[in-house]
C-alpha cells in the first residue's frame, strides 16, 4: 500500500474511533504564535493557562511589547522555561512589528505555503512546528505541525522512515497527507497518540491501527475477556 493511501486509511480508522474533529475555527495569528511558543516543552494545560494569564493581563500585544521581560516571565511560569519563552515572545513580536510596521501577520494570507513558512522560520525562535501551527490554525493553509505524538505514531506506522528527524517530518508529512486532510490528520493522530499509542507502554490491544503498525516492539494483542 502506498503511503498516501495508507494515510487516508489511517485517518479513516482514527476518525471511526474518535470521531471527526470540530471544524477549523481560525485563531488570530499573533495569538497563535504566542500560544505555540508557550506550548514548547510542556503540556497543553500549562501552556493554555499561561496564555490565558497573558490575555487577561495585557489589553493588547502591543502593551506586552512595552513590558519588561522579567515581568512577562513571572506571568508565564506555568509554562516552564519562563525566562527563555518570555524573551522569545518579545523578540518575535518586536521583529514582526519592525518588518510589518505593526503587529500583524496578515501579509501571510497571500503567500503560498513555502514562502509563508520561510517568512515565519526567519523569525528567531520560530521553529517548524510553530510556523506550521500559525499557517494551519490561523490561515487554514495546508502545513502539518508535528508534535511528539504525531512523530511517534507516524514512525510506528511506517509513514516516516527511521532516518527522518522531527524537523524533517513537517515537510515530509505535509507532502504525504492530502491537503484537505491535514487538519483532521493532525488532530486525530494527536488524540490517538495521547490515548493509545503512548511513548511508554502503548495500549496495543486497543489500537485500531494495530494490523497496519510496523512498530517492532508492539505488544502482542491480548483482548480482555468480557463477563
Mean pLDDT over all positions: 92
- Low-pLDDT sequence parts: 222-227
CATH homolog superfamily of the largest domain: Hypothetical protein, domain 2
Indicate the CATH architecture of the largest domain: Orthogonal Bundle
CATH topology of the largest domain: Endonuclease III, domain 1
Query: Helix count, per DSSP?
Result: 11
State the end-to-end CA separation.
Answer: 38 Å
Q: What is the chain-wise order of helices and strands?
A: HHHHHHHHHHH
Strand content: under 5%
Number of strands: 0
Q: Class of the largest domain in CATH?
A: Mainly Alpha
- What is the CA-atom radius of gyration, in angstroms? 19 Å
Structural class comes to mainly alpha
Question: Could you say how many structural domains there are in total?
Answer: 2
Largest sheet: none
Estimated helix fraction: 55-70%
What attributes does this structure have?
globular; 11 helices; 2 domains; Endonuclease Iii, domain 2; 227 residues; disordered C terminus; Endonuclease III, domain 1; single chain; 0% strand; mainly alpha
Task: Describe the model.
- By secondary structure, the protein is mainly alpha-helical.
- Helix content is 56%, strand content 0%.
- It contains 11 helices and no strands.
- It has helices at residues 3-18, 29-39, 44-57, 61-65, 69-75, 82-100, 113-121, 128-139, 148-156, 166-176, 182-195.
- Helix 2 runs antiparallel to helix 8 (128-139).
- The protein starts with a helix and ends in a 32-residue tail after the last helix.
Amino acid at each position: 500500500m502506498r503511503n498516501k493511501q495508507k494515510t487516508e486509511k489511517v485517518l479513516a480508522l482514527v476518525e471511526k474511533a474518535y470521531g471527526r474533529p470540530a471544524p477549523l475555527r481560525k485563531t488570530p495569528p499573533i495569538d497563535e504564535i504566542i500560544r505555540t511558543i508557550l506550548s514548547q516543552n510542556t503540556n497543553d494545560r500549562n501552556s493554555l493557562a499561561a496564555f490565558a494569564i497573558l490575555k487577561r493581563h495585557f489589553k493588547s500585544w502591543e502593551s506586552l511589547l512595552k513590558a519588561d521581560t522579567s515581568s512577562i516571565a513571572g506571568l508565564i511560569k506555568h509554562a516552564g522555561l519562563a525566562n527563555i519563552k518570555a524573551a522569545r515572545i518579545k523578540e518575535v513580536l518586536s521583529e514582526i512589528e519592525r518588518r510589518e510596521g505593526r503587529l500583524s501577520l496578515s501579509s501571510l494570507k497571500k503567500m503560498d505555503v513555502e514562502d509563508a513558512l520561510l517568512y515565519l522560520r526567519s523569525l528567531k525562535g520560530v521553529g517548524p512546528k510553530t510556523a506550521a501551527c500559525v499557517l494551519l490554525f490561523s490561515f487554514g493553509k495546508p502545513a502539518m505541525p508535528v508534535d511528539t505524538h504525531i512523530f511517534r505514531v507516524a514512525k510506528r506506522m511506517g509513514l516516516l522512515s527511521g532516518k527522518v528527524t522531527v524537523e524533517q517530518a513537517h515537510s515530509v508529512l505535509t507532502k504525504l497527507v492530502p491537503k484537505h486532510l491535514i487538519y483532521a490528520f493532525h488532530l486525530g493522530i494527536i488524540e490517538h497518540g495521547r490515548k493509545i499509542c503512548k511513548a511508554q507502554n502503548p495500549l496495543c490491544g486497543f489500537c485500531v491501527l494495530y494490523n497496519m503498525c510496523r512498530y517492532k516492539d508492539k505488544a502482542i494483542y491480548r483482548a480482555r475477556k468480557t463477563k
